[in-house]
Specification:
Layout (H helix, E strand, L loop, with lengths): L5 H7 L17 E8 L5 H15 L3 E7 L12 E3 L2 E3 L10 E3 L4 H10 L3 E4 L4 H13 L2 E5 L4 H4 L6 H16 L4 E4 L2 H9 L7 E4 L16 H5 L8 E6 L8 H13 L4 E6 L5 H5 L4 E5 L3 H10 L2 E4 L8 H8 L3 E5 H4 L9 E4 L4 H13 L1 H14 L5 H18 L3 H7 L3 H4 L3 H6 L2 H29 L5 H8 L6 H9 L9 H27 L5
Parallel strand pairs: 1-2, 1-6, 2-3, 6-7, 7-8, 8-9, 10-11, 10-13, 11-12, 13-14, 14-15
Antiparallel strand pairs: 4-5
Helix pairs in contact: 2-16, 6-23, 9-14, 20-23
Length: 531
């Protein structure tokens, strides 16, 4: 086999240095992928599942190391190496999320029996730190991909001011231990470099792809629209994704409500679940389809006219790419989706949080049928350069790069010559002890979540004209019998709005719990990655 040229290496998406010619074949790959919550369908796990499917189609053997919900069966987890997890109780984060604490003896035994030749880390959680140590002890190739703007999420949970500085220290310490970190877009590459990443690790672009046979304008369905009360004359505005604060469903809601209030012919459809779902389900001219996948999801994209997606925390924009491939014109944020949408050609881009900009762009597309139809054609054409199989194969080549590099003793020696490479950190000793994390973190997380739930429920109940039992039935899941509930509901008793002092007290309790919950974690992070 001949040594690949520099250009061939670039095509394969590997490190830009001359590679050894003894690269493994696709069917010789044994890949272990670490992720936090494989059974929660979000952007990270969908990307992992597509990659996993592609690798298996090429003959590779793949296993996933992840936390697993209690209700899943042995058949569903046959290719999963189960990691003990601590549930994240915040409803705003979504259902089913958990994080692992460490690799226990049983988990390590399963990993060693699997005998991977490359390990792929997808989240910078605590258990991945333990996984890095295992790779270093056993001289197994490893690398990471960047999927989420973690620190940017904090501002939507009112935690940015206290946690972001320390959290950034943690993230840098984690990713700087990697020989290579693959990021999804040129924007993210520049952003990470500006934030101080890439001093010890190599940052390399690895994009995302789309199945152009699945996501196509040909799947537009009159039945899909009619079944939801949407005529062919209606302009359908689409949302796809988790309904959580950082994705900015509030902007989507405001735009759709304003279009409706001004008598503009537009209706909305929401694909996804989350904390905003209850509010959206009560809106006029909005249909909630729940979580869709496969052909059903492709029909939703193709049957809609406009994707309005104001999230500014996307790392690539899988939703936007799938919409474009389906001929659905997109209105998105210019920073994280500007590599997909050329404003005025296949959609419009707006500044993060620019409600008026999103409204005007959407209104223009709703009212100009000819412009929308032309942009729909352009959207489909612009998606062709992101054909999925070619991009997924690039990651297979990246795995081979990691394997070849770790066969070189000099490379391993240089990697382990720095504190980051060796992982000699205070945090590593503490966070990789599952008992420690579970004992101290879990009670704090549960207490904070309980106080938040109480504060949110009390605020809603005390400021609404519903009877106390109706309110309890909606928010607190009262255990009062149905007969008793009806009796008291018939009394028609109403709560007067809560006093300012009561609301202030509840808010104070809420924020005190948040600060107490994260103070210890914050101190650990500030102390992290020090010799």
């Amino acid at each position: 086999m001949s040594v690949p040229t520099k250009e061939e290496q670039m095509e394969m998406g590997g490190i830009t240095e001359l590679k050894a010619h003894n690269r493994p074949r696709d069917d010789e790959l044994r890949i272990l992928i670490f992720t936090a919550c494989y059974f929660v369908l979000d952007g990270v796990t969908l990307t992992i599942r597509r990659l996993e499917s592609h690798l298996r189609s090429r003959g590779a053997v793949v296993k996933i190391a992840s936390t697993v919900p209690d209700e899943f069966t042995a058949e569903q987890t046959k290719d999963i190496i189960i990691i003990p997890g601590i549930k994240i109780p915040f409803t705003a984060a979504g259902e089913g999320y958990a994080f692992g604490g460490s690799l226990g003896e049983n988990t390590l035994r399963e990993i060693e029996e699997f005998n991977p030749n490359c390990v792929h880390f997808t989240v910078p959680d605590l258990v991945s730190l333990d996984g890095i140590r295992w790779c270093q002890r056993n001289n197994v190739g490893y690398m990471a991909t960047w999927h989420s703007n973690y620190s940017d999420y904090l501002k939507y949970y009112f935690l940015e001011w206290i946690l972001k500085p320390g959290f950034m220290v943690y993230l840098k310490g984690f990713y700087e231990q990697m020989p290579a970190v693959y990021v999804p877009t040129p924007f993210m590459l520049d952003k990470l470099k500006r934030e101080g990443f890439g001093r010890n690790t190599e940052l390399i672009e690895w994009g995302r792809g789309v199945d152009l046979k699945l996501f196509t304008p040909d799947r537009r369905s009159s039945e899909f629209r009619i079944s939801r009360g949407i005529s062919e004359q209606d302009v359908l505005v689409l949302w796809v994704g988790r309904l959580v604060p950082e994705k900015r469903p509030d902007i989507w809601t405001s735009v759709v409500q304003r279009l409706h209030s001004e008598g503009i012919n537009a209706k909305g459809i929401v694909v996804g679940h989350g904390t905003f779902e209850a509010t959206l389900s009560e809106m006029q001219n909005v249909s909630c389809a729940g979580w869709l996948s496969g052909v059903s999801l492709a029909e939703a994209y193709a049957s809609a006219d406009i994707l309005l997606f104001p999230s500014d925390v996307e790392t690539f924009g899988n939703v936007t790419l799938e919409a474009l491939a389906s001929g659905c014109v997109s209105v998105v944020v210019d920073t994280c989706s500007g590599h997909l949408v050329q404003s005025g050609f296949n959609g419009y881009t707006c500044a993060p949080g620019d409600l008026e900009g999103f409204y005007q762009a959407t209104k223009t597309l709703v009212q100009d049928d000819n412009l929308r139809r032309q942009m729909s054609k352009n959207a489909r054409e612009s998606a062709w350069r992101f054909e999925r199989n070619k991009i997924l194969q690039q990651m297979a080549e990246n795995y081979k790069d990691a394997i070849v590099r770790h066969r070189d003793p000099e490379y391993v020696r240089q990697l382990m010559s720095t504190p980051h490479g060796q992982g000699r950190t205070f945090l590593s000793y503490i966070c990789c002890n599952f008992w420690f994390v579970k004992t101290f973190a879990e009670p704090f997380l549960n207490a904070t979540a309980s106080v938040q739930t109480l504060a949110d429920s009390s605020k809603e109940c005390m400021n609404s004209p519903r009877s106390r039992f109706t309110c309890g039935r909606r928010n607190l899941k009262s255990s009062v019998s149905s007969t008793s509930v009806v009796k008291f509901a018939d009394e028609g008793k109403e709560r007067r709005p809560a006093s300012a002092a009561f609301i202030l007290l509840m808010k104070t309790m809420n924020y005190t719990a948040i600060i107490a919950s994260y103070l210890i974690i914050g101190l650990l992070i500030y102390a992290s990655f020090t010799l």
